[in-house]
Every structure is written in C-alpha cells, then in structure tokens.
Write a structure and sequence with these properties.
5 strands; alpha+beta
Amino acid sequence: MIQVTPSIAIDESEISEEFVRAAGPGGQNVNKVSTAVQLRFDVLHSPALPEDVRARLIRLAGKRMTDEGVIVILAKQHRTQLQNRAEATTQLIELIRRAADKPKPRHKTRPTLASKQRRLEGKKQRSEIKQTRTRRPRPDE
C-alpha cells in the first residue's frame, strides 16, 4: 500500500509500470537498456479514491489522462530504472495530494462606501481630463 494522505492509500496492484527506452544522457547504455518508466494508474476504477478527489484529479491530470480514464506518467530524467520508478511514483502521489486538497470556498463581499466614493472620484477626474483634451476653443473665447 502506498500512503498518499492519512485517508487515502493506493494498493500497488492498481499501478502498472512499463519500461521503455529513453533519450538523453547515458551514451550507448541509452540505446540498449530500457530505463524510462511509463506509470499507469486507472483513476475511474480505483476504489481508493473518494468521488470528490477523483473529479479534481481528472481536472488536474490534463493531457496525462487518456480517454479511458488512465493517468500515464513518463519518467526518464535519470539513468536507472530504480530512480525513474521512484520519480514516477512521487509524481503520481504529488498529483493525488494536490487533488485531495479541498479548494477554499469563495465568500461574496461587497465594496465599502469609501471604495465606491474613490472609484467615482477617479471617474470624475478622468472625465475632466478627457473633456479638456477634446474641447476646441470657441471663437468667442
């Protein structure tokens, strides 16, 4: 079990990993050894996720989410499979933790009387500036 938050724990059997060849540092080793990790986690069918977390996770995942509801994380920064596995797992856990944070509800506020007066005063000043700018002097002035 991977403990994500105190209330959310994911069974390791829900996560599948596939090793693929990666580009980048490593010389000939990169061409021979599959060190990059493709981690897959089925969000839609996971029993470990509450519905509200699942909905936020789908929104947060963005282009990492497939049409079938599977998050695919590719980790290829490091030269070893072990480091890339740890990196991919860390990314998934961080994504789920961000989804588990409930957003603060927004409370409606009203502008104060002073702020309304400042706004109107600013509008008056701006109006006066524009009036003096566009007005042509009359012949009798």
